[in-house]
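Now for one protein, fold included:
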Amino acid sequence: GDTEERIATPGASHLSSPETCRSIIMAAIACSATSVARTAAQAQARRHRVAAAQQMSCPARFTRPQTLTSPQISRSSAIISRTSTPLIRDHRVRSSRTGSRALTVCKLKGTVVITGASSGLGRAATIELANRGYYVVMACRDVAKGERVAQEAGLPKDSYRVEECNLADLSSVKAFAETMAKEGLDVLVCNGAVYFPQATEPTFTKDGFEESVGVNHIAHFYLVEKLLGTLQKSDVGRCVIVGSVTGNTNTVAGQVPPIADLGNLDGLKAGFQGVDNCMIDGKEFIGAKAYKDSKVCNMLSVFEFDKRYHESTGVNFVSLYPGCIADTPLFRNHNVFFRVAFPWLMKNVTKGYVSEGEAGWRLAEICTNPDYDKSGVYWSWKQGGDNYYENYNAPPEDRLKAFENEPSEEVRDANKGKMLASLTQELIKTATGETVGTQVAASSA
């Protein structure tokens, strides 16, 4: 996502000496080297199997490269690249659902908004969607960075634009939403996130919320509420909120401490302001847990939005886990050992690793593929996913096809989802003076 870069890495002073860093890196390299010979033949066979599956599964209008794991992301090497069909822009058709005019280009080709589009998963998805013929609005905190990223990727001028949307400031979110409401959109992707795993003290958004929850959950909740009426006007209205395996305690990764747990939402009930009340469960601040809790909120919100909105608006609400992008910029605030060892572990032990390009392709699939035209679903993949057994044993074609995964018990807690939505609406009203969710109340009465 469009992550913050200003946070230092407290608690990592024991890794700061050059000698220690070199020792750690050399140890990781040595471990990796011992596995190269053993895995070379397996990797080659795996590439052949994947290539065969690609030929079976690739839609006729797209071409696919020979490997799914290339870290290079460009117009020529995206996981699925567009053919020579020209981009089609700003062709308005009348919505059969509402009778109003919506920006819906050739049915599934239209406008996609992506938060956090200047790095990581958001950047990869932006490139993939633009290559497929969609117009992408890159919602970024740093507009100059977004422009630079798009130009470096070689995106055509008519395939994107960059708009300021600072998720740490609800007034910025509101201004961005009002701009998009005038223009129309078809798909909203809530992807931007911050992650401070080494933080021992909380940082806060402009509105006074702990930053991980404020950016990752509250800002996106507000954005969805503001743009729901606009999404409703599209023939293909979809809202995709990126989840995480770390927020699902029914997985191995979800059991790695600190474990996500919203408790009774005591922190939100108490106003969620200040150092002493900056965790959702009302307990002591833990940087990594704040992030994991925010991802639980993201997934809970998807299911609650589905219950409250889908039937009355026709908009589909989904979440997904695109696989572990172990070398994503999201991990920039982790210590040196983690940044070296974690990618190696995901690639060589758990097989849960996916490149940014592959993850971007997966996100683009959920946004646009009619096979995933369903609401209230948590999508995952059986290769490069959260099930380590499936990563080793699922057929290669499963790497290309998403399935409806079962989230954790907390994520499926309907009562908690309803309470979370109500408390989030109250926090937004306190911060902005604006009442959101009136349609929610009407449809759930």
Notes: The chain has a mean pLDDT of 78.
